[in-house]
Amino acid sequence: MQRRLIAFLILCLLIFLYAMPIMAHDRDGHDDDIEYVLFGNIDYKETHPNCRSKIQAIEDATYLCVDQFNGSGSKELENLRKEKIPDIPKSISEFDFSGNYSHRDYTHRGWNFNYDDKAHWDMRQKILRNTVDKELFSDLKSVFSLLPWNSDAKKYKEQCESICELLYYVHILGDHIEADNFKALAYLDPLTRLNDRDNPGIIPDLISCFEKLFEAQKNTYTYNELKQELESLMDKSDKLTRSTGGVNTDEKFNDYHKCSEDLLEVLHAYVPRLLQKEEFFIKSFS
Predict the structure, then answer these.
(1) pLDDT at 89
(2) pLDDT tens digits for 181-223?
(3) Which letter, b or e, does each residue of 97-107 get, where b requires 16 or more Cβ atoms within 10 Å of its Cβ?
(4) For residues 47 and 30, what is the distance between their CA atoms, to the nearest angstrom?
(5) How far apart are CA 224 and CA 93, in angstroms?
(6) 149 pLDDT tier (thresholds 50, 70, 90)
(7) Alpha-carbon dihedral of residues 142, 148, 151, 156, nearest 10 degrees?
(8) Letter string b/e over residues 110-141, b meaning 16 or more CB atoms within 10 A of that residue's CB
(9) Is the Cα torsion angle 65, 70, 72, 78 positive or negative in sign?
(10) pLDDT of 1 strictly over 70
């Protein structure tokens, strides 16, 4: 009788562990991914102290945009205030919401997703935009470049938005990689969802944002290699998400998870090389 009871309890525990949502990347993991994609080095902030405050602000703003809930983030918001990021909320309470694992439903469904008002998504995006604009583009701006008919003004605005989008999707990609079963993908923007024109998924959105971010490099070998690699992963992941039932078996999950890991490595292989040829990036991190 005792053996049966023990076996039953073990079975219940295994069922609970399997059904329980897997935790996302921790904060350090997300920050490492940002530095891995932007600089090709997860320790860039520590090995380049002259850039540390700038990188920390970008990482803090990404966290506040995507992962802040249940009153967290006061330290990060205060750090942005010390960095003199303009026009940011005075208090966490202005954009906070209550949630648990399902907090992803309010912030992890895509950069351009139409979220519930509870998400305060416009305010969250503004925190990230204003931080990226101040830390990466302020050195390039002059009185004349701010004029609305100036071509540089449009270029800076589009590149700023593209960097924000890239930071956002690097964060979401980290949660894909952290998942160890298909149930842990709940509430996450998929890698690819081509049947949804408004929210086609991470990879199609990255392809679109790179077209603006690296517009001056579209004819280069590096850019076109990046695009080809992304399109290949887009095709692979779309076949999985379009399959009957979607990514709903261990076999399909393993293939899908491999696409997530490969996507991070593709970004790491190409994005730093392209960024290092963009004027705003050179001036910000020279």
Answers:
(1) 97
(2) 999 999 999 999 999 989 999 999 999 999 999 999 999 999 9
(3) beeeeebbbbb
(4) 18
(5) 44
(6) low
(7) 60
(8) bbbeebeeebbbeebbbbbbbbbbbbbbeeee
(9) positive
(10) no
Residues sharing a CB contact under 8 Å with residue 243, sequence separation 6 or more, in sequence order? 252
Radius of gyration of the chain (CA): 20
Which residue ranges make up each domain of the chain?
Answer: 25-284
CA distance 157 to 129: 10
Contact of 108 with 66, CB cutoff 8 Å:
yes
> What is the rounded distance in angstroms from the CA atom of residue 171 to the CA atom of residue 108?
9
For 154, the token pair is 């449009």
Question: What's the rounded Cα separation, in Å, for the pair 268 and 263?
Answer: 9
What DSSP character marks residue 118? Answer: G
- Asked whether the predicted pLDDT for residue 16 surpasses 90, the reply is no
Which residues 6+ apart lie within 8 Å of 212 measured at CB? 158, 159, 161, 162
| SS3 call for 172 | helix
pLDDT score, position 151: 64
Helix runs in 40-120, H state only: 44-47, 52-66, 74-82, 104-107
pLDDT of the residue at 2? 53
Considering the entire predicted model, what is its pTM? Answer: 0.89
* Structure tokens that stand for 132 in this block: 């990226």
Give the span between the Cα atoms of 203 and 266, in whole angstroms: 11
Show the tokens assigned to 246.
């979607």
| Distance, CA of 229 to CA of 75 (rounded, Å) | 38
Predicted confidence (pLDDT) per residue in 48-75, tens digit: 999 999 999 999 999 999 999 999 999 9
| Cα separations in angstroms, 117 against 106, 107, 121, 122 | 9, 11, 7, 9
Rounded to the nearest 10 degrees, what angle do helices 250-275 and 27-39 cross at? 50
